Amino acid sequence: MADRPILVLGATGSTGRRVAERLSGAGHAVRRASRRGEVRFDWSDPGTWAGALDGVERVYLMAPHELPVEPAFVDEAVARGVRRFVLLSTRGVVEMRDERLLAAERLVRESGVGWTVLRPDWFDQNFDEGFFRPSVLAGELVLPLGGKRQAFVDAGDIAAVAVAALTEDGHEGEVYEVTGPEALSFPQALDVLARVTGRQVEFRGAPDDYRAVVPADLAEEQIRAWDALSDGEPTDTVARVAGRGPKSFHDYVVGAWEGGAWRG
């Protein structure tokens, strides 16, 4: 197994990129796959699956936002010799009744081979690489979460847990909730960002605020899902699995700011 490449899907994304970098840095052969990566992989084109899976026994498995993990891909992967999946899911998947990701979790559990499920909290990188970035630059973030606290987690810490699950024994059959070291509300997180960068971002967290800026059907669906979330308390997963403490949100903001984030 050690000599075979590890397939990383979504290898140009926030977590996949970091998983691939960590694996390569540790001396593992990596097959970076995405629609525009070193190896072309497209969920909508089964003809791209075989080339990605050839000779692979371990897979970092994720699907882009809103896309399902195709059962046929998991079946083909197992038939071609894959013996371990590490699946990126999300924290609160049960409470929110996220059927897309719950179905993906069932697929790997029932695949007949080793599996580990990662359920990270909200990514730190949502603020500088992801869907919060335009709001930060515009000075206003609208999200119907009120004062609920989330244990924001750095994508590098998610990657560290994923790499351990891909390369070490003892992680099969585990569901890991991956978090940062503290739980912050969105106003608290934006206050950290303001203190580090000087950039003020207003938070509007009422459901009616969200209804005013998002199409009605989507707004109601997301409000219902997020309303089911409770405060996201920190876990010890990063320390226990990766062998070091997780990065704080403050340290993430400092690093992102020093790297040029939010200056556009």
Report on the structure:
With 264 residues, the protein is α/β, with parallel strands linked by helices. It has a single domain, classed as NAD(P)-binding Rossmann-like Domain (Rossmann fold). It is 38% helix and 16% strand. It contains 11 helices and 11 strands. The chain has a 7-stranded parallel sheet, with helices on both faces. It has a two-stranded parallel sheet with strand order 7-11. A two-stranded antiparallel ribbon has the order 8-10. Helix 1 (14-25) packs across helix 6 (155-167) and helix 7 runs parallel beside helix 11 (249-258). 41% of the residues are buried.
**CA(first)-CA(last) distance:** 44 Å
CATH class designation: Alpha Beta
| Quaternary status | single chain
Integer-rounded radius of gyration = 19 Å
- What's the architecture, going by CATH? 3-Layer(aba) Sandwich
Whole-number count of domains: 1
* Average pLDDT for all residues: 96
Overall morphology: globular
Query: What structural class results from the helix and strand content?
Result: alpha/beta
Q: What is the CATH fold-level name?
A: Rossmann fold
The tally of helices reads: 11
Strand-residue proportion:
15-25%
Strand order of the largest sheet: 3-2-1-4-5-6-9
Proportion in helices: 25-40%
Q: Which residues form runs of ≥5 with pLDDT under 50?
A: none
Main sheet: strands, sense, barrel: 7 strands, parallel
Number of strands: 11
**SSE pattern, N- to C-terminal:** EHEEHEHEHEHEEHEEHEHHHH
Q: So, the CATH homologous superfamily?
A: NAD(P)-binding Rossmann-like Domain
